[in-house]
Amino acid sequence: MSATAQPPSPSFGRRTLPQTLNDLANLPQDRLYASIPKHRLDLSSGFMDVSCRDMARCVDYMAHWISRHVGVSTDFATLAYIGMPDLRCVAVFLGAVKCGYKVLLPSPRNPPSTNLSLMQQTNCTTVLYVSEVLPVVKALLASSPELRILEIPSLQEMLDSQPPIYTFEKDFADAQDDPIVILHSSGSTAGIPKPITMTHATFAVLDNERNLPTVPGRRNRDYSIWDFSGGGRFYTVFPYFHLAGFLSLLVNPIFTESSSPVLGPALMPPSGELLKEVMRHQKLRALYLPPSIAEQLLMEPGGLEFFRDLDFLSYTGGPFSPSAGELLSTVTELCPLYGSTEAFQVPQLAPSPEDWAWMEWNPCFKLEMQLSDDQPNIFELVLFADESTRNMSALNHNMPGVTQYRTKDLFKQHPQKPGLWQFYGRRDDIIVLSNGEKFNPIPMELEVQSHSSLSGAMVVGQGRSRATLLVEPKPDNPDENRKDLESVIWPHVEEANRLLPAQGRILRSNIIVAKPDKPFARAGKGTIVRRLTENLYESEIEAVYAEGPAKVSAKGRMQPTMVPHFSKDTIVAFVRSILTDSYPDFANIEDDDDLFSHGLDSVMISVLLNNLKAGLGESSPNSDFEWLDTRTVYHNSSLSRLTDVLFHYLNSGNHPGFGVTQSRTGAMKDLIFKYTQGIPALSTTVNESKGPYTVALVGSTGYLGPQILRSLMADRNVASIYCLNRSVDARERTTQELKKFGDDTTLKFDRVKFLLVDIGMPQLGLSTHDFAKLSQEVNTTVYNAWRPDLSLPLSSFEKPFFSGLRTIIDWSCTNPQRSRIVFISSIAAVGEWSKVFPHEPITPEAQIADTNVAMHMGYGESKCVAERVLQVAHEQCGIPVSIVRTGQIGGSSTGHMPEQGWLLALCRTSKVLGVLPTHVAAVDWLPVDVLAQQISDVAAANESHDKYCVYNLVHREAQPWSLFLDTLSDRFGFGVERIGLPEWLYRLEERAREDAEGKYKLEALQLADFLRSLGEGREDMRCVCENIKGVSKVEVGPLSVELLEQWVRGWNL
């Protein structure tokens, strides 16, 4: 048997599988199709080679068998095949295709309901099966007695037969769009597979990849890697009903030049041990495996040597662990393949060996890496199809008519090599906790399941207050060892915790060990089916959450040594130990550092408070710590301030109140003093410009920033724009946000330059050259960098926002342009104006003389302080300042509002409570594009260089709050009771007290202080809005139920 014999002049991309196999069978020298074990239970008897001529004979045998027992189809009727991982799938599939059928290949591992659903969707009433899977077929028959089931002959009977040739009459031109096979998605996330129908042209796409253009000096990494010069064998473990297995068993031996699969025993599960036995019997040129199988062999003594002579190791279904991948890459080429059942694999270019874990897409393929909304610096792969991609994209054939396919697969970009990508996870994998925090569980899962005692790991927590880890011991793990498994793997989990953001980390009490009789549900490729596994362990998961937030174990907690008088040193050491035991990333913070600036959030506060109370209860058992709550941490958000609170309570019994005290205005005045000291003298050289202007936009990301940029780009008076941001992916985030408004094709970025800055550093962290260039050119700086969080205390805004503002002030004072500062403030900065000045109920466009006008929340106080700092800077230095006070920002004139913010939290919480609060605020919301245009007009206005001007930018025709409530009731089915805001807050806090776990679904709970500061509601708040008329002519349409409905439609209320 010769491995080098080929059909004459193959027409790559214009062939069908049945006819090409016939051509191979008719060659003078036969070619190897596959090598299979002689025994289905082990390899003791070795292997048997099956030639293309043998395989063609099996196909013809089954074609005649099907035509006799089922008949011939003229309309591509569906036959289902359920079998074993052997060559009978090839004979059945190609035999059925010759008879005019398409073949559904459901996984035998699916629940009967899933396979029946697939059969119903594809109008399948006949099932062909092998004897080994009779129990699976009987389960189908029990639920659907009308099914017709037929057991097919053994493989040996097929091989021994001498049937007449069963001709396949059609050529590629006639057959290309004929449906031939139905695979299904794994359902590894949702748990509900969907059928994907494929045609002859689908597989011709792979055949055609030899015709893809090459990049000079680079090597294509696509289906052509399987063209082994002189022929060769590869071992694969993927089953025929999974795309990787179907290609390995049916397409590789026929379309490649040539690669032949080696199969393991059908009744022996894949493992590292089996891989070792196969490699002892066979001379392999490649492996095609999930990484877990290769890693098992690698862990064995001398395991690395088995991989040394391979051409490459191709893998899918997950990444290698970094240590295993680094080791393997020293002896063979690692080929991570990416693809999907819907779209097949994406052609790549082979990267440098040191970049083995990264992928680079072939530039000829139509795709985009679009910045994801789910996580910063993460991109979603989006594929495109049109007539030009017909010969290179399976998407054209598997999903005809689809021109854009969002894969939902997320990737991260190489930090130094922008063209390289690494799989990060599925959008569906992203876990959103009850407080809206998101995290990707994949890094944790991969690290944990690499432990030698485990075969799987899965993180759950969707909509919960915190994450929980499920671990699956290896099948051979004795029951007695399972009891101690949590202790055994805990150090590994602690290491894995470092791979996740704080909100996603696993507490020791949130680990569930799988039971022997309930293994994880898995898809054909071996990946865990998340939803099915979570459903399987529903009761265990509920039990974990019912226990409430976990406490730090006594063993893991540093116990403070306390005496009748508690010293501050002892308390601060105690608080630090509790904090770092709860969240190790806080180990190196300073005593005066703001905890929120280091990432503390509402979920983390709950765990921290629970652990603090537990530790304090042991040290001072007669004390009541019910007063120690979320507000305590918000108002004392550093180690030193929290220590002071505990010091006074433990030694005097006094705990803090949160009324209006001198500490509020005192803290504000302290910050004003701090950030106005030493303001430099005004530059003696002033280059006044009448336009066109150069604008620096500090903060072009988020929701408002991109819209300000859009308006500046459209202004002819703006010559150039510098976007100054702290994030490396600011350009992608900004442009991605603009694409949501359809602006990606109309806007030109030739006048825009993005610079990475550190606004709190001298020269903004820029090089001397870049900073000097900015100083010479910039006339106006729009300062839009601020954290829109209504629950944070004032101190949390100091770094980097106040320090950044001072940097901008110093820059403006000393640069030759004497650049004007346009500061994006908030109506919250003057939200108490009518209370402080009752004789002046309408808030004017005026400077702030009394800091008591700020709303009673850190965000409003921070904006008030910033305005006062700029006011002092103007008075002392003479720099021109424009204050822009914005209110609640609406959606665009044509789109919806972002799914975030206090308004959404209030709506969702109201739905949980079953009541809506009345009179909360005036509906004076400006559309975001209108607001951005007004800000742009302010920035480009030809204002005097000695001017300080204030603009209140809210809707002049404010509507009552009831307009919004009517929208929720009439358009979104909020048929709930309406009550006053104080009563609503009472019910909110009462619900939180009654339901400790359920409180994490009450998103507005962390906004309680802000909402309480509104009293009965601030529906009566009105503002003077006259100054904008002098610089902007943009028209503002009326507010209506229809517009509000359009804005909140995307909130899934």
From TrEMBL:
Pfam family, one: NAD_binding_4
Keywords of this entry: Phosphopantetheine, Phosphoprotein
Coiled coil: none
Stretches assigned to the AMP-dependent synthetase/ligase domain: 49-345
Domain annotation Thioester reductase (TE): ranges: 697-935
The keyword Ubl conjugation is annotated on this UniProt entry: no
Protein name as annotated: Putative NRPS-like enzyme
Taxonomic source organism: Ophiobolus disseminans
